[in-house]
Design goal:
The chain is an alpha+beta fold and 247 residues long. Helix content is 26%, strand content 32%.
């Protein structure tokens, strides 16, 4: 890294030093000199190049971390963050709505839509008998053109007659369900765990088989009861969960 290419701070300016340092670092990121995944120079190097104190640099780095441009890894350093989906407190929304709300261009690739028999877990989630027909819709979900997750939704066949013939390649599944069947979700239960990406999902997500992933199980209900259960495998480096805890 050529330090002459870095902006420097000017103590004659009324602008705070930490803000000038933040702008200098951010410019390098936005110019592509430090692409996503790159480890930026250590704090002492940044102090030397910018001519500011460690406190000033830490203030700048904290601000850049708070707007998701950087991430700190304990014992390793500070890295330019990959574009990621941050899931925090939210209402009951579809993936499409959730992505749009955080400014990502939503994309989806329909992998399959078919009728399959419900296994024991799906039957229990939907309140049907094992072996009953369900509609399975499998999609690759994208944010700004990059793969984020693989979602497999299972819906009660008796609630969505004819769905299998519909074009579900575009738009929100919940919008289709409301338009076609008057189904409006009112509550969902989600369970998160960390697990390895299987070979098929890993290939779709562009990661190595066995890479850590968020496994998200969701059961969604409307006024008549559970109508959908979804299993999502989300890229661990592009999906986060953030909660705010208050006393």
């Amino acid at each position: 890294m050529n330090k002459d290419m870095l902006l420097t701070v000017d103590r004659r300016k009324p602008e705070p030093l930490w803000h000038q340092a933040e702008k200098a670092i951010r410019e390098r990121i936005e110019a592509g000199e430090w692409p996503p995944g790159t480890q930026i120079p250590a704090e002492d190097k940044l102090c030397e190049w910018l001519g500011v104190s460690r406190i000033t640099i830490r203030h700048a780095l904290r601000n850049l971390e708070s707007i998701d441009l950087l991430r700190r890894e304990h014992g390793r350093g500070t890295f330019v963050r990959n574009a990621s989906v941050v899931a925090g407190p939210r209402g009951l929304t579809s993936f499409t709505t959730e992505m749009a709300a955080i400014g990502l261009k939503v994309g989806s690739r329909l992998l399959s839509q078919e009728i399959v028999p419900a296994n024991a877990a799906i039957a229990a989630a939907l309140g049907i008998e094992e072996g009953d027909d369900v509609v399975r819709i499998r999609r690759l979900r994208l944010g700004n053109g990059d793969p984020i997750g693989v979602q497999s939704a299972h819906l009660r066949f008796d609630r969505v007659p004819g769905l299998i013939e519909q074009d579900l390649s575009e738009g929100s599944l919940y919008q289709h369900l409301e338009r076609l069947y008057g189904i409006k979700p009112i509550e969902a239960t989600e369970t998160y765990r960390v697990g390895p990406a299987g070979a098929e999902d890993a290939a779709l997500l562009g990661v190595v088989e066995g890479s850590p992933s968020f496994i998200v199980e969701r059961i969604t209900v409307d006024a008549r009861g559970p109508f959908e259960t979804t299993l999502s495998v989300m890229r661990g480096d592009r999906y986060e969960i953030r909660s705010v805890l208050r006393a």
